[in-house]
Amino acid sequence: MKKILRYTAIVLAFGGSGAALAQSEAAATWSGFSAGGVLGMTYSRANAVTTTGRLQYFDNFDAAQIGRTGNNDLTQSRLSGGLVLGYGQQFNQLFIGVEASASTLYFNRDHEKREIFDSPVAPAGTGMTIKQSVSADWLAGLRLRAGLTDHNRLIYLTGGLAATRIKMETTYVDDAWSGYSQGSRSKNKLGWSLGFGGEYNVGKSWALRGEYLYSRFGYTSVTTDVTSTNNSGGTLDHRANLEVHSLYLGLTRRFQ
């Protein structure tokens, strides 16, 4: 019995000292400015669409076929790196902040497809080729962050504005009556981002972080004229959007 009591006393004493040590360890303070770098992967998808505008050179059979042939998804996965800069305030366990980011994107994909004409007026065996190219080099954002803190951890949701520059290039050619149409357009696009993430304090002012973001942008469009050796004229309408899945790991420093 004495051995049991002595052992119990030792366990309680050790547990009490451990609890006191855990309580004495200062919890991270997440208020203030922060800056850091991230590295990860992006998976990007652009939906490129080519349709007829004013017909003239084309007939209704051509319009339907161009609509099918010219609807394509362009996808690409790439390494990505960037910088983040933010400010936040902690209210007990609640964290509210804002963060700006800038990262590389490296999206550059093209798609080329040839189809034999199914129009009854087209010469037998002739066809058309549609080539579409979409690219974007960078991704920037300005987002709110809201989350909960637990000692050395911060878990948050984030959402806000996203920006990029989308370039679209298109070419249409056929060997029926030398039909040809070409165009390109570059445009800065605003979109939106939603995501979630977490940070873990690893020192007085440093934290490891992981984050997932989904960003989406509206369509960039261009209309091109059609030339040919037979009934030249008409237009083609081209448009492309972009969505990006980003997964990052990083290291940030707080300035308090």
SSE order and pairing:
Layout: H1 2-24, E1 32-52, H2 60-69, E2 71-91, E3 94-116, E4 127-150, E5 153-174, E6 180-201, E7 206-225, E8 235-255
Antiparallel strand pairs: 1-2, 1-8, 2-3, 3-4, 4-5, 5-6, 6-7, 7-8
Kindly report the average pLDDT value. Answer: 90
Count of alpha/pi helices = 2
Topology as H/E string?
HEHEEEEEEE
Number of strands: 8
Strand order of the largest sheet: 1-2-3-4-5-6-7-8
Give unreliable regions as ranges. 1-24
**Assembly type:** single chain
By secondary-structure content and strand pairing, the structural class works out as mainly beta
What is the helix fraction of residues, given as a range? 10-25%
| Biggest pleated sheet | 8 strands, antiparallel, barrel
**Shape type:** rod-shaped
Short description:
With about 260 residues, the chain is mainly β. It contains 2 helices and 8 strands; from the N terminus they run αβαβββββββ.
Characterize the structure shown.
The longest helix has 23 residues, at 2-24. The protein has an eight-stranded antiparallel beta barrel. Helix content is 13%, strand content 68%. 30% of the residues are buried. The chain is mainly beta and 256 residues long. Mean pLDDT is 90; it is low at 1-24.
